[in-house]
Design brief:
With 112 residues, the protein is an alpha+beta fold. It has a single domain, classed as Glutaredoxin (3-Layer(aba) Sandwich), CATH 3.40.30. It contains three helices and four strands. α1 links the parallel β1 and β2. The longest helix has 12 residues. The radius of gyration is 14 Å and the shape is globular.
Length: 112
């Protein structure tokens, strides 16, 4: 099997309602992960790019969080409405979606 060109890690971590740090998947539905898988399949990219469920990516206050590798592009506050834009503009077009980017210092040095 060929290696994937890109991996998307979509935080599906769950915490109790009202947790101080927030929660990336408060409905426990994994809807964001499913939306990425669906759009990748619709575009015929699912053999080249992989949408992976991830546990906590330690960016809870900025969640839902998605990170794209190998380029290590971190997105925060991603919604299902953003999925097509990320796939088309970033994964296909090569330009990250600026309005969703986390500042590098925040992604590299999460709050404790």
């Amino acid at each position: 099997m060929a290696r994937f060109e890109k991996h998307l890690f979509i935080c599906c971590n769950r915490r109790e309602a009202g947790h101080a740090r927030g929660c990336c998947d408060p409905t426990a539905s994994e809807a964001l992960h499913k939306a990425f898988k669906k759009v990748l399949a619709e575009r015929g990219l699912n053999r080249r790019m992989r949408a992976n469920k991830a546990g906590c990516l330690d960016q809870c206050e900025k969640g839902p969080t998605v990170v794209v590798y190998p380029e290590a592009v971190w997105y925060g506050r991603v919604t299902e409405a953003d999925v097509t834009e990320i796939v088309e503009q970033h994964l296909i077009g090569g330009t990250p979606v600026a309005r969703l980017l986390m500042p590098e210092d925040e992604a590299a040095n999460p709050p404790r």
